[in-house]
Amino acid sequence: MKKLLFILNVDWFFLSHRLQIALAAQKAGFDVHIATGITDKLGVLQAHGLKVHPLGLVRGGVGLLNAVQTAFDLRHIINHVKPDVVHLVTIKPVLLGGLVARWMRVPALVSAVSGLGYVFTAHGLKARLRQRLVGLVYGWALGHRNQAVIFQNPDDRDTLMAATGLPHSKVEMIRGSGVDLAQYAVVPEVAGVPVVLFPARLLADKGVFEFMAAARLLRAKGLSARFVLAGLVDTANPTSVTQEKLDALLEEGVVEHWGYRSDMPQVLASASVVALPSYREGMPKALLEAAACGRAVVTTDVPGCRDAIEPGVTGLLVPVRDVAGLAYAIEQLLTHPEQRKAMGLAGRRLAEQEFDVHAVVDKHLAIYQRLLA
Question: Which architecture characterizes domain 3-178+356-372 according to CATH?
Answer without folding.
Answer: 3-Layer(aba) Sandwich (3.40)
